[in-house]
């Protein structure tokens, strides 16, 4: 699995998930339950992961919808 997005913005997480689901790209959310450890402050970013084979398509979907990706390595 490869990291597609890392953000503190829960609305971006939901939007990216909806876009990927619409393109039938499976994604996995990581660090969702970290708010228990941090006290629900939202300082720890959440990550959206995709399968290696879907990374190129997933990045293209985000770019096409105006979501800038910081690191495309």
Q: Report strand order across the widest sheet.
A: 1-3-2
Instruction: Describe the largest sheet.
Output: 3 strands, antiparallel
CATH evolutionary superfamily: UreE, C-terminal domain
Helix content: 25-40%
Mean pLDDT: 87
Uncertain runs are: none
Shape designation = elongated
Q: Roughly how many Å apart are the termini?
A: 14 Å
The count of domains is: 1
Instruction: Return Rg in Å.
Output: 12 Å
In DSSP terms, counting alpha (H) and pi (I) runs of 4 or more, how many helices?
Answer: 3
Order of helices and strands: EHEHEH
> Which class do the helix and strand fractions yield?
alpha+beta
Number-wise, the strands total 3
CATH architecture: 2-Layer Sandwich
CATH topology: Alpha-Beta Plaits
- Strand-residue fraction? 15-25%
The CATH class is identified as Alpha Beta
Task: Give short descriptive properties of this protein.
73 residues; alpha+beta; Alpha-Beta Plaits; three-stranded antiparallel β-sheet; 3 helices; elongated; N-reg_PII-like_a/b; DUF2007 domain-containing protein
């Amino acid at each position: 699995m490869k990291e597609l997005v890392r953000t503190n913005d829960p609305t971006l997480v939901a939007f990216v998930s909806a876009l990927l689901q619409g393109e039938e790209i499976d994604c996995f959310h990581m660090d969702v339950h970290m708010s228990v450890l941090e006290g629900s402050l939202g300082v720890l970013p959440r990550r959206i992961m995709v399968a290696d084979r879907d990374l190129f398509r997933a990045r293209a979907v985000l770019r096409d919808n105006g979501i800038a990706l910081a690191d495309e390595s």
